[in-house]
């Protein structure tokens, strides 16, 4: 595995920015949207759709969250956290699988060299 | 767009920039651009840096290959805006519209090399199922794809699994072919920064 992949560094900067940086939504709520866990209705439905079925997000889902007292800026931030959270889970799961496959490959290369 | 702030919540400087883009491209400013220009310090600036690095930074994959990956991921997500944008950009980068159409119609029979096919298959599965296995990775490595190339492809996947979600959640307007052509020219000339 290359030790210096700029993209992974910039990814971490992005994740840290949206979760820990200044924002209009509380950090705990941004983290919950990122994790798609621990939210209450109607925000739960909107965030779950962003993570799992984004084409099914409807005007009504956003309107209900606004009616519950969140501002457009807070919704903007929480939807972004939800999208980045789901894509990050995919990215990290795949990078782990790649690291394991590369470890196994090196192991089998050693094994085949040892057998010669 | 579903949030009014993404239509009208911009400062004077950004409005001037949008007017300039409109005048030069003779097309409305795409909603993808409006998103990254709204409070850019929160999301737009770091996301543009990531996407530019993934799509235009150093890689053994060509720009056309990476735009094709973006189109395939967006098709798996059924994201109309991003399918249109990246189908047009991949076709223009390759100078080969038929190749891009063939991949989007049927990856298994499309006239592309096996390493790219194996990689697109992996990205399709990751997008559809949100996970891939070590065996999936071994299959791509066995097709002749390097570890670095897989990492580069996974970065494209992160960028478009994020952007596709935002396009549909915020309700991006899906323009016609002329606007996608203008967008493709811009993305090939300037990238994502």
Describe the 3D structure:
The complex is a heterodimer of chains A (116) and B (193). Chain A is mostly helical and 116 residues long. Chain A has helices spanning 6-20, 27-35, 43-52, 59-67, 72-115. Chain A is elongated and about 55 Å long. Chain B is mostly helical. Chain B has eleven helices and no strands. In chain B, helix 4 (44-56) crosses helix 10 (147-170), helix 5 (63-76) runs parallel beside helix 8 and helix 8 packs across helix 10. Chain B is globular. Chain B starts with a helix and ends with a helix. The mean pLDDT of chain B is 97. Classes of the chains: A mainly alpha (116), B mainly alpha (193). The interface between A and B is large, with 49 and 54 residues.
Using DSSP, what is the number of strands of chain B?
0
Reported for the largest beta sheet of chain B, the result is: none
- Order of helix and strand elements from N to C terminus of chain A: HHHHH
Mean pLDDT of chain B: 97
Q: What's the total helix number of chain A?
A: 5
Structural class label of chain A: mainly alpha
Overall 3D geometry of chain B? Answer: globular
Low-confidence stretches of chain A: 111-116
Q: Please compute the radius of gyration of chain A using only Cα atoms.
A: 19 Å
